[in-house]
Write a structure and sequence with these properties.
7 strands, alpha/beta, Rossmann fold, 7-stranded parallel sheet, oxidoreductase activity
């Protein structure tokens, strides 16, 4: 029961990969602090996870608002957080020229700014203690320029580069940073992004199970690995993309992610 007193803070912890990660931490007797926008969803998730006898605390914050990301740090204060999981993220589907700029800036604030703010706050505490783990939700999208989701793919390229760089800076401190890179996963992400018409989303059988993705991320985090690409098919796609010019990768993604043409 060495993990009994350990605490993990998970953003986006009420659905998808974040919720599956929360279940894995609960199984390992971590106390949970889950952060999401919707108080009702937080309460129902807490009731579900708390049945295993651990303490589940909920904090309602909209992390696409930078002030709320800073407020979250203030609310936690100097409490000991053993693991930080930056899972909250969103995308928006459509051509860049057509998409709403405010929506795209919210995605930048959530996927990039909130990740930077929380990582900064907790990595300082972890380094001073000489112990801690951080899991940042990247994506195979971070390795692939993505027409129809230009801003989302770019934010995930940032997350991957940022995580890798900070990991190197703190490598002798007892603190590790890990990037989890899923591909297309069966979560509410695509619905929220308005992406249900996309070819890549129509093929439900090709979608990964969020529980499998979470397990891959959890194991990589606990092993102190730098990154993990969840799913064999995604590894193949990234390896193939590494051998192609970015323009060719972008063209392939344009074709994969464009709307299905209705008869």
């Amino acid at each position: 029961m060495e993990n009994q007193q350990k605490t993990v803070l998970i953003t986006g912890g009420t659905s998808g990969i974040g919720k599956e990660l929360a279940k894995l931490f609960a199984q390992d007797n971590y106390n949970l602090i889950i952060v999401a926008r919707d108080q009702q969803e937080l309460e129902s998730t807490a009731a579900e996870l708390g049945s295993s006898g651990i303490n589940v605390e909920t904090i309602a914050k909209d992390l696409s608002n930078i002030d709320e990301a800073f407020a979250l740090c203030q609310e936690i204060g100097d409490r000991k957080i053993d693991v930080l999981v930056n899972d909250a993220g969103q995308g928006v589907y459509g051509l860049f020229k057509d998409n709403d700029i405010e929506r795209e800036l919210d995605i930048v604030h959530l996927n990039i700014c909130a990740t930077v703010i929380l990582t900064k706050y907790f990595v300082q505490q972890m380094v001073s203690r000489g112990q801690g783990r951080i899991l940042n939700l990247g994506s195979v999208a971070g390795k692939l320029p993505g027409p129809w989701q230009a801003v989302y793919h770019a934010t995930k390229a940032f997350v991957l580069s940022f995580t890798t760089a900070v990991r190197e800076e703190v490598k002798d401190s007892g603190v590790t940073l890990t990037a989890l890179m899923p591909g297309v996963t069966d979560t509410d992400f695509f619905n929220k992004a308005g992406m249900n018409e996309s070819k890549v989303v129509q093929d439900k059988e090709a979608m990964a199970d969020p529980a499998d993705v979470a397990k891959a991320g959890y194991e990589a985090l606990m092993a102190g690995d730098d990154r993990v690409i969840a799913g064999f098919k995604n590894k193949l796609e990234v390896n193939a993309a590494n051998l192609m010019p970015d323009s060719a990768v972008a063209h392939n993604l344009y074709e994969q992610q464009k709307p299905v043409e209705h008869e």
